[in-house]
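Hi V.,

You were right to ask for the full record rather than a summary. Here it is.
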Amino acid sequence: MEEILGFAALFFGLGLAAAMVWLQNRPKTEFKVSLLPHTPLMFAGAFIAIVAVAYLLSVYGVKLPERGGRF
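Predicted structure:
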């Protein structure tokens, strides 16, 4: 169940970011102002995707190697 949630969030974030990039870069035919803020939604989708990747890595048990030293 955890994997399904992680992959759903990953695909949602990537889809949202891709849709906003497509909406932002399509050719403009009319001089109308869009009521949808493309850039913040694009960054929100990218943030959701990054958090989903971190979640999936933690679900699958991937750990960072221990670093030696004082800290």
